[in-house]
Amino acid sequence: MTLLDSEDEYSSESHAAFGGLSDIMGRFMEQISGANQIPLVRLFGQSPAGFSTGETDLRNYYDTVSQAQEKI
What number is the average pLDDT over the span 54-71? Predict the structure, then answer.
């Protein structure tokens, strides 16, 4: 909402620079994944990047969950 009186002038600026939005979202997803100790493959269904197949990440995740269940 914009409130103007008779002496004000309205001007708007538009910025359409969304070039880095995907990078920001990727970093955010990595932070959430790391904070919850859940691999991106499991948490977001995202395909692994680089040379990783994701199998090692999932195996480590399931081993960690299994160990936590045994402690209870």
Answer: 91
* Three-state secondary structure readout of 42-56: HHCCCCCCCCCCCHH
Provide CB contacts within 8 A for 60, sequence distance 6+: 39
Q: What is the mean pLDDT of residues 2-18?
A: 75
Which residue has 């977001």 as its token pair? 44
Q: Residues near 57 by Cβ (< 8 Å), separated by ≥ 6?
A: 39, 40, 41, 42, 48
Measured CA angle at 36 (ends 24, 66), to 5 deg: 145
Q: 20 pLDDT exceeds 90?
A: no
